[in-house]
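Why does residue order matter? Because the sequence determines the fold. Keep that principle in mind as you read this record.
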Amino acid sequence: MIVEDAMYRERRAAPDTRRGEDPDPMMKRGDHPGFHASPRSMMMIAHIVNFVYGSSFFMQASVFTYLCRKLGADTETYGWIQTLFATLQLIGNPIFGYFGDVFGPKVTVIVALTSAGLSHMLLGFSTNLTMLVISRFPAIAMHGYTACQMLVTSVNERNKRAEALGQLGVSFGVGMIVGPLIGGWLTESYGEELAALMAGAGNLLILPFVLMVIPWKMKPMGSHHADTIKSEGSVQKMIRFFSTPGVIFLFLVRLCSAVPIGIFQSTFSVFAMDTFRLSPEQGGYFMSFIGITIMVAQGVGVRFVARIFSESTVLISSSFFLIWSYLGLAYTTKVWQLYLVCMPLVLNLTILNIIVTSALTHTVSSDSTGAVLGLNMAIYSFVRAVSPTLGGYMLNAFGYPSIGNFGFTVSFVTTLVLCIGYGKKPWAIYAKFKQLFFIVNK
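Structure:
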C-alpha cells in the first residue's frame, strides 16, 4: 500500500504532456533538453560566449588603426570615428538593457553577437573611409559583455552575484590577451582585412551554440512582475527605476570612479612616449601587466573581499586606497614606479566597479536588472567619449602630474560621500581591517 501510494504521488507530481503541461517551466519549446538554467551550466556558457566576444572585439581593434591609416584617415578623422563609436555605444546601452528586461538574456546575447559579427565583417570588406564609417554603426547593439552580465545575473542569487560578475571579467580578460595575439599574427601573415573577417566569423559561428544551449526563459518572474513589464511603458519604468533608493547614488559613484581612469587610459599612449620614453614593445608589456592584474582582481580579489566584508565596507575601502594610488601616480617619473603604482590602482578600481555593479542589481527589482546593467555600461561609454578631449586639455595645460592630482581629488571627495551615504566612520573600517590582519597572522 505504501509503495502504491508513493507511485501514485509520483504520477500526480509528474507533468502530463498530453494535457499540454510544460515539463520544465524554465524551458520553452526549442530549448535543448540536456541543458537547464542552473548557475553552473549558465556560467560556463557565459564564459565561452564572453571569451569569443572579447577575443573577436580586441582582434578587430588591433587592426582598426592600421586599416584607418591604410584607407587614408588622418589623426583628426580617426578621432572622429572613435568618438562616433563611443557615442553609438552610449546611446545603445540603455536601450539594450531595457530590451534585455523585455525579451530575456538569450535574445540579447544573439543580438549582441550578430551586431558584432556584422560590424567586424563590414570592417573587413571596407575599401574606403565611407564603408569603414558604416562598419561602426552596428556598435549601437554590440554589447556582448552586458548581455553576458544579464545571463549571469539571472541565474545567480543576490549574495553570489559579485563573485559571479568578477569571474565573468576573467574570461573577457583572457580574450583581451588572446585576441590581439591572433589578430597580429593574421595581419602579418594575411593582412588586416582577413583579421577583421575572422573576428566577425567568430561571433557568427558561435550563434548556433547559443541557440541550442541557452533557454529562452531565464527569469522566473511572478505574475506581478510580468504584468508590470507588459503594462508599464519605458518612461514609467525609467521613473520607477530612478526613484528606487540608492540607484542614483551608486551611479554617481560609478561615474566618479570612471572619469579619472578614463583620462588615464585615453592619454596613456601620449605620456608613455613623452614622460616615460616607452617603446611600442614596452607599452605592450605594460598593457599585458594591466590585463593580468585585472584578471587577478576579478578572479581572486572580488571573491575574497565579497565573502569577508560588506559591500559598503569594500566600496569605501577601495575608494580610500585609490586616493593614495592616484597621489603616487602624480609623482611617478620612472617606469618601475609606474608598475608599482598601477598595481593597487587597477586592483582597487576593478573591485570597486564590480561591487558597484553587483550593488546596483541588488537595489532594483528582478525585471529591471537589464536596464541597470545597460545604464551602468552607458557611463563607461560616456566617459570614453569625453575623456580624450578632457585628458588632452589637461596634458597640454597642466602636464602629466595633473592626471594623478585630478584622480586624487575625485577619489577623496568620493570617499567622503561614501562614508556619509553609508553612515560609516573611517576608524570603524580601520578596526575591521586590523581585526582581519590579526586573524591572518594568528
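DSSP finds 18 helices and no strands in the chain.
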